[in-house]
Amino acid sequence: MNTILDSQNFNSKPIKRTHVMAKPIGAACNIDCTYCYYLSKQDLLEYKQGCTPTLQGDSLETYIRTYIESHNAPEIIFSWQGGEPTLLGLDYFKNVVALQDKYRPEGVIIKNDLQTNGILLNDEWCEFLAQHDFLVGLSIDGPEMLHNAHRTNRAGRGTYKQVMKAVDLIHKHNVSFATLTCVNNLTSKNPIEVYRFLRDVVKSTQIQFIPIVEQKTFRNEAPQSDGQSWQAEKQVKQGDKRLIPGNANSVVESFCVSDLGWGNFLIAVFDEWVKNDIGNVFVQYFEANLASWIGESSQLCTLNPVCGKGLAMEPNGDLYACDHYVYPEYKVGNIHHDKLEEVSYGDKQQDFGHAKIETLTSECQRCEYVFACYGECPKNRFIKNANGEANHNYLCAGWKKYFAHIDQSLARIARVYGYPVKFGRYSDERMMQTIGKNQRYII
Ligand code: SF4
Ligand code: SF4
User: Which residues are catalytic?
Assistant: First the structure.
């Protein structure tokens, strides 16, 4: 389902797209953020001690060729993530661009996204990124104290000064960029400071937030292989103090955002954005929410009915159902033995994607905001709700508070821009999303 088919044609054939998040250096990184969910993959995926596998040589070429072949579209987007992909060096990415050019079908535009902590960026890097129109995703958590609290180097020192140097270089060379900010136990308590910093100091016009939610067992325990879910018998009921980050016996890591912490953060940022920044600053969640209110599909997999915005690929070519499901149980293929397209369309990946909607709790199915949430990311469905139903979303209370808060404003914004309001309490015509087990979506 991470392959999109639609009725439009390209080169007289139906358009198709596959999306892979490539991790060409696996989990290897030059810093050591406290909340990183990926560093521990080095042990989980049984990489040999001290070995840093990389996607190189023929393997890199195979990947670029097969990725291009899995598309029939006017534009192909490659995504590079880590770990820290810039550790591979600039020549690596010069080679990437040359290989893309070698296999690029006529009339097709190829673009690249690169997620980075910014530490290694210099003038030469930024000239290259600007010249080849890379979209850089820069990880930055806010003003110095907030950023340095969790984004530290191996010696435990904060990386703020280095990332701000990268911000200056990015602006100097006009590199396209978006910021990615983790909403954790600390940033969640300072929403306005974080948002104004991103807007006024970093001058980011594309702002992405990500809620930090990890169970204490996240480093070595995988969700069950049937339907993405966590073991029901271990789940704690909504309202239990063990769901509060930092509490004694908490089942979540202390760096996590709490459920209401998440909702309150989004509410505060939304109010500031509505007052001052509509049309000038793009906050990924608000864009996604607006799409849901007008009945369009949102750009965020977490808020869509089915999963599968993209497979994740490790340096040895192993493909996983999702970046957040890089566990042996969720391996769906390998680029050296399987056709990328077939993996994308394959039963295993389809079932993975549809499990998101098919395993919604009855509370979600009846929720008035299910059209905008769909139970959010299954990775975060590890609590029992007030009725004792397992596999409910940890962030639910925050989501509900936030959706209720933005409902009327979003309806107003949609109307100002001339869109019909299809969902929510203020819709033109009240529509209810029907959730059925046998519904199958093509995304
Ligand atoms: S598991 Fe979460 S992150 Fe992965 S595709 Fe599904 S919603 Fe998106
Ligand atoms: S807000 Fe809560 S109940 Fe509603 S769909 Fe999201 S997780 Fe489910």
Answer: 323
